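WARN retry 2 of 3 for item q-0093 after timeout on previous attempt; input resubmitted unchanged.
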Amino acid sequence: MALTIQANENCLVRHADCKRIFGGSRICFIACPNSEEIALELEVIKQKLREVNIEPYVAVDNRDFQKDIFCEKICTKIIESQFCIVILNDVKDLKDQTRKPNANVYYEYGLMTAFRKRIIPIQRLDHQLAFNIQSLDTLKYNAGTFPKLIEEAIQMTLLSLDEKNKDKEELGYDLNRAEWALDLMGLIRADERFRFRHDRVVTSRSLGFQAYTHPNEGTLNFVGIFPPEVNEKEIMLRSKMLTLRVKNYCTQLSKDLAEAEKSLIENPRSMVEQRTGDLRVWIEQFSKSHVIVIKDNMSDPEKFKKEYADIVKEYGFSLALEVIDNERMKQLLGN
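OK item q-0093 returned
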């Protein structure tokens, strides 16, 4: 699969070439005031980013002597970051002891917007946004809600980036026919809530599969659309790993269900009862999910299905597998 690499050609403020690669480093640029008032928020953000293998970058924390501060510490780091976080809290001005927005933060926010970066803007509930950004969606928080809110925001941003990176043009493969076939089969792509709740655990996208649901039947399907250059041995390995991940997730869900049922007996509450109901639905859905492999030049679909059944026997767990090759595609599309 060929990835599209995009560079920033020219410097925004100087007559010079730039050539920095957008998203070229696994960092997150954090724009924030240089103040102890946000120390706790910064610590939580750094922890949550490192948990997903993203290195936090705070310009005021980094010293790079004898280099252009704007270029080396700010602009290029924003360009190269995977996404950005902006802390928009007002902080106390040490000179006159009044609370003010930080001009540098807003300037960096503007740069991020100009570069069309994915941005997570955050601000305390008791602070006010500047008038010119009040229409922009901002994560408002208090001390108690912050860790969970920022973790969810980071996860949702990564999922959004993952979808962007797997865009049709980047795959270098015409997906129209495959998508039409999925439409005719009554399948729709799982929504963002599903991907955030489940796919970050199963991580099916890293194996080349995406979750689809059948609204009428209530079934879950992991669909892999593979271009000609991906060989069948590789697809078999990916299908095997997907099956193992689904099995492990079902095991974890079953443990969670046992704990929830125990808690329900000891302390009946509607919230716990709702969770046990959700867990039962998810276990049923995942344990009976289907794997759909779409590949034009599949040599022998029936042989592939048999080999899959044989290779997952060691897990004591298997999923229904369907292969859609060129002939099956013609049947679906009626041509």
